[in-house]
Amino acid sequence: MHPAFSVIFFTTASGAGYGLVTLLSIMQAGRVLPADPMLGLAGFIIAFALITAGLLSSTFHLGHPERAWRALSQWRSSWLSREGVFSIATYLPAGIYAIGWIFTDWRGGLFTLTGMIAAILSMQTVYCTAMIYASLKTIHAWSNRWVPIVYFSLSIMTGALLLNALAAAFGYFHAAFFWTAEIAIVVAAIVKMQYWRYIDTTPGPSTAETATGLKGKISLLESPHTQENYLQKEMGYRIARKHAAKLRQLAIAAGFVAPVLLTTLANMSPPATAAALAVLAVLVAAIGVLIERWLFFAEAKHAVTLYYGATSA
After folding, report:
1. What is the per-residue burial (b if ≥16 Cβ within 10 Å, else e) of 214-243?
2. How far is CA 210 from CA 87, 128, 196, 200, 206, in A?
3. CA–CA separation, 42 and 91 (whole Å)
4. CA distances from 236 to 1, 55, 195, 304, 313 (A)
5. d(CA 140, CA 301)
6. Nearest to 12 by CA among 238, 288, 234
7. Looking at 95-104, 233-242, 285-294, which range is the least confident one?
8. Has residue 91 got a pLDDT over 90?
9. Position 310 pLDDT exceeds 70
10. What is the mean pLDDT of the chain?
11. Please, what sign has the CA dihedral across residues 97, 12, 120, 91?
């Protein structure tokens, strides 16, 4: 599939924002985070900015962005519509939770409950985003159980890195921040590599023979067009195997290896240096996740390409 930057930015930015909201809520429930209004203000400004920027970016991929609100009416049958409903619904409890943290005794039971509701809705939104792709049976690279797990793990990983950097910037150091980030990175790396292993070793269910209903070995005799049409450009995007392999290595190095090392160094460094290293880990991880998400789209092939010469999809 043709990688659209608006969708790539949306899935990575909003995923990080929802991951941060989730971890802020969980850490508050566990009484790990300090009752610092400025920390809460900074945390939710970052989370809401990422979520909102991502959601607005997703509308740029639509032919008529001004009609995006109409998608909300199809929540019974559309994962895209469900994503929109849950993303909007998350603002209410997350906003109440943020106000409680910043202006009142946010450690009260009511606000803790509100925060946990915000965390659940955040992860439900991430799940709906993943299912937009995982529900498409015509795309083998997406229609598998690993896609929702990848989205969950990367959301929590980026959220954990943001939380660790945020806490370090305010001078708060706790083993929970460090270990949450480290474990989240390792889990996300394992999940992503398992996903790549799956799409590399599992053949797609559709072939030129099953698509045409013909028996024997089927091959394209002559192209129906003198140049690529819209379907070929959007759903048959091609990337050389060697280039994909290099980009995977870069995604692993920037998205997982470097953040683990930087987070470890930050945990061993004095406060000023630790904060800088934690922020650097966020920035490097962001580059890695953007590359990973670009590959997620670029390596996916739609079954329609079988009618244009592809042997499998």
Report:
1. eeeebeeeeeeeeeeeeebeebbbeeeeee
2. 39, 30, 25, 21, 6
3. 16
4. 6, 26, 20, 8, 10
5. 7
6. 288
7. 233-242
8. yes
9. no
10. 87
11. positive
Q: Give the predicted TM-score (pTM) of the model.
A: 0.90
Among 1.20.1630, 1.10.8, 1.10.3470, 1.50.10, what is the CATH number of 5-308? 1.20.1630
Q: Which of 80, 205, 197 is nearest to 146 (CA)?
A: 197
Which residue reads 């797990």 in tokens? 149
Q: What is the pLDDT of residues 93-124, one digit of tens each?
A: 999 999 988 888 666 678 888 999 999 999 99
Please name which of 119, 78, 114, 88 lies closest in space to residue 99, comparing C-alpha atoms: 114
Kindly state the tokens that stand for 153.
């793990």
Could you tell me which of 285, 295, 176 has the C-alpha nearest to residue 246?
295
Both tokens of 200, joined, read 């590399």
Q: pLDDT-derived band of residue 302, with 50, 70 and 90 as boundaries?
A: confident
Q: Give the integer Cα–Cα distance in Å for 24 and 47.
A: 10
